[in-house]
Amino acid sequence: xxxxxxxxxxxxxxxxxxxxxxxxxxxxxxxxxxxxxxxxxxxxxxxxxxxxxxxxxxxxxxxx
Length: 64
Fold this sequence. Notes:
Layout: E1 2-6, H1 18-22, E2 28-29, E3 38-39, H2 49-53, E4 59-63
Antiparallel strand pairs: 1-4, 2-3
């Protein structure tokens, strides 16, 4: 099943993570505002909404 993946090296750590806001199952989480968000892969449904909203284009949908 396809899942989202975030390139943590290229992530610019936006003040407000737009990708997390549009994630229907809330699979994108950010524990610390100083660090990039992560994807809870067991929750991600692979919809791709986050890919469209990430201004830095660092999120991709990968097949597992």
